[in-house]
Amino acid sequence: MLTDIQIAQAAKLRPIVDVAAELGLGEDEIETYGRYKAKIHLDAIERRAGEPGKLVLVTGINPTPAGEGKSTTAVGLADGLRLRNRKVVLCLREPSLGPVFGIKGGATGGGYAQVLPMEDINLHFTGDFHAITSAHALLSAMLDNHLHQGNALGLDPRRIVWRRAVDMNDRALRNIVIGLGGPGDGVPRQDGFMITAASEVMAIFCLASGRQDLERRLGEIIVGYDREGQPIRAAQLGAAGAMALLLKDAIQPNLVQTLGGTPALIHGGPFGNIAHGCNSLIATRAGLALGDVVVTEAGFGADLGAEKFFDIKCRVGGLEPAAAVVVATVRALKMHGGVALADLQTENADAVARGVENLEKHVENVRKFGVPPVVAINKFATDTEAEIAAIADACRRMDVPFAVADVHAQGGKGALELADAVLDVVAHGGARFAPLYELDLPLAAKIERIATEIYGADGVDYTPGAKRDLEKLESIGLRNVPVCMAKTQYSLSDDPKRLGRPRGFRITVREVTPSAGAGFVVVKTGDIMTMPGLPKKPAAEGMRIEEDGTIVGLF
Predict the structure, then answer these.
(1) Per-residue pLDDT of the chain (555 residues; tens, 9 = 90+)
(2) 41: number of CA atoms within 13 Å, CB side?
(3) Can you tell me the distance from the alpha carbon of 276 to that of 304, in angstroms, rounded to the nearest whole number?
């Protein structure tokens, strides 16, 4: 059995100029990065603004170590739609190097449903993550230089909220002390790092409508507070223009292709559990301008990725999703039904039937936004007919269209049934999209609505610090904004061990922080952290490059 990287290395790619031509883009409208990657000029997208294509979201159930294959299904679906003679564009996030070298892996799909060139995308790609990290670092450097040079703005060193960023899992950097040495080495203070995927610069990058909007949003970043408690912003430090300059090329969406030859825009990469988990708004709009159908994804289950996609990205970008595919697997539903990871190879249709309640909740969640769902049963070789039938029976009870997708083994051909189901839903035009909450509600009311309606919680509890955070943020003008929930991806609750469809629980909010440039506040629950650590055996240990340049061990 071939590994993902072996399948990718054996593929014959089309020149990227040919992929661009399929979308009607001329060679003067793209900037090539070798033969198989390119960036699309922003003015080429603007010239094609008009009647947009249909937007299809791919989301899923709560993930488990058994695997759900949401990105793989999205790739396969796009290839399946292309086989049905649709002009389709796939829009995905860029991978973060932290998970690539840690444990989660990349973000390019798997098997015969991959985005190529897989090795490039999972490593440095076109340098977007580095540009975002550098822009973040520039603001950090200018902030500490301001303190060192006399602190004319009166920034209180005890109230600085801007932390540093690096695109790697490194738990030792969560809490650090900087400025040690002598008077010439800066002002000593406590600081720390987050991973780049959690940076507000990343969030801004993925929600900006263009270069001017990017600079405006960067200027709105709150770096800290003065001694009177008033916010100090990046624009006051004179940083926004140079930060935007560092991102001048990165802001253009990246064009690549799937194994099946479908055009794919891979751009931006905020995490789904600690950020808003969607690719860039610019790339999505580009896809809608260039294609008839756009397939995109949002991080983790519908409780996180889909909720943020609908309540944040669609609201900000004025997007109207036509359908949402909810991905589930027999293996994951068995775990939600109480089966241990080591026992998943054994047939257990009863456990699948018990675990289906997790899928049912996510289908309900999608419908709360007025978007018609389609269930994709992502097939594994070990699945039995009885287990698949248990999911199919549940879908019939929910009156939701469904299809078995065998995209890992068959690519787009394994997604034809799913593509037909999606096209049928889109053709019926049943979407009546609306966000879950109104922006003029207090922040606590928005949090309560998400917790009770999307998670199924009985209510929300706040630490004393979180209560103060809410009061502070509303007092400085961050009341009428969306909330970005930072929560474990493994459970509908804030306890990762509570699988299935938990009931009788409450959500605990421990901190609420501003992302004024992104235009939302981040609500942190449970033990969620903005800087992951490496596992006991990082994936990096099995990676290397041969003398002839062949990469080994990258999935």
Answers:
(1) 888 889 999 999 999 999 999 999 999 999 999 999 999 999 999 998 777 899 999 999 999 887 789 999 999 999 999 999 999 999 999 999 999 998 766 778 999 999 999 999 999 999 999 999 999 999 999 999 999 999 999 999 999 999 999 999 999 999 999 999 999 999 999 999 999 999 999 999 999 999 999 999 999 999 999 999 999 999 999 999 999 999 999 999 999 999 999 999 999 999 888 889 999 999 999 999 999 999 999 989 999 999 999 999 999 999 999 999 999 999 999 999 999 999 999 999 999 999 999 999 999 999 999 999 999 999 999 999 999 999 999 999 999 999 999 999 999 999 999 999 999 999 998 999 999 999 999 999 999 999 999 999 999 999 999 999 999 999 999 999 999 999 999 999 999 999 999 999 999 999 999 999 999 999 999 888 899 999 999 999 999 999 999 999 888
(2) 11
(3) 8
CB 55 within 8 A of CB 288: yes
Cα separation, 88 vs 287, whole angstroms: 8
Neighbours of 313 (CB within 10 A): 24
What's the CA angle centered on 511, arms 489 and 232, to 5 degrees? 120
Q: Dig out the tokens for 276 from the structure.
A: 């808003």
Characterize 24-53 residue by residue with b for buried, 16 or more Cβ atoms within 10 angstroms of its Cβ, and e for exposed.
ebeeebbeebeebbbbbbbebbeebeeebb
Please report, to the nearest 10 degrees, the dihedral formed by the alpha carbons of residues 286, 118, 61, 496 taken in order: -120
Q: What letter would DSSP give residue 95?
A: P
pTM: 0.95
Closest CA to 105 of 45, 65, 149: 65
Contacts of 470 (CB under 8 A, 6+ apart): 443, 444, 462, 512
What one-character DSSP code corresponds to residue 185?
G
Q: How far apart are CA 187 and CA 180, in angstroms?
A: 8
Beta strands per DSSP E along 184-272 = 189-191, 193-195, 222-226, 231-233, 254-258, 263-266
Give me 533's structure tokens: 């650590």
Residue type, 533: G
Report the chain's C-alpha Rg in angstroms: 23
What gap in Å lies between CA 419 and CA 410, rounded to an integer?
14
How far is residue 381's CA from residue 58's CA, in Å, rounded to a whole number? 22
The DSSP letter of residue 165 is E
| DSSP assignment letter at 304 | I
